[in-house]
Design brief:
There is one protein chain. By secondary structure, the protein is mainly β. It has strands spanning about 5, 10-15, 20-25, 30-40, 50-55, 60-65, 70-75, 80-85, 95-105, 120, 125-129. The strands form two sheets. Strands 2, 4, 5, 6, 9, 10 and 11 form a seven-stranded mixed beta sheet that branches. A four-stranded antiparallel beta sheet has the order 1-3-8-7, with no helix packed on it. Strand 7 (about 70-75) and strand 8 (about 80-85) form a beta hairpin. It is globular.
Length: about 130
């Protein structure tokens, strides 16, 4: 059974930093995309927004415009863990952050939640002003 377990969320002041971790159990794919979505409070029916993603095959990455230059995605293959380092956090970054995995990489839809088959339980990030 595939499991994605997130950690590292918390409460931080604006301008601060956090690092999220996503530990993945053995995945059924060799070529996959792993990354992060977020869902802001008060929008339970809204699609989760793609934040950042990384390809397992060649390490290519994607960042949403809203986080470029502030967030960095990385991975530790030995630990089967992907990280999201977040700097210069803003109140609008407040959300539940979800780790997700899809097979392969889709240039046009990498940030679309419907493409992802496996999801973690989410970790809360709250940025106070």
């Amino acid at each position: 059974e595939v499991q994605l377990v997130e950690s590292g969320g918390g409460l931080v002041q604006a301008g601060g930093s956090l690092r999220l971790s996503c530990a993945a159990s053995e995945l059924p794919f060799e070529d996959y995309t792993i990354g992060w979505f977020r869902q802001a409070p008060g929008n339970p029916g809204k699609e989760r927004a793609g934040v950042s993603f990384m390809s397992s095959s060649d390490g290519r990455t994607y960042y949403a415009d809203s986080v470029k230059g502030r967030f960095t995605i990385s991975r530790d293959n030995a630990k089967n863990t992907v990280y999201l380092q977040m700097h210069s956090l803003k109140p609008e970054d407040t959300a539940v952050y979800y780790c997700a995995v899809q097979e392969g990489w889709s240039n046009d839809d990498v940030d679309k939640s419907f493409m992802y088959e496996y999801w973690g339980q989410g970790t809360q990030v709250t940025v106070s002003s």
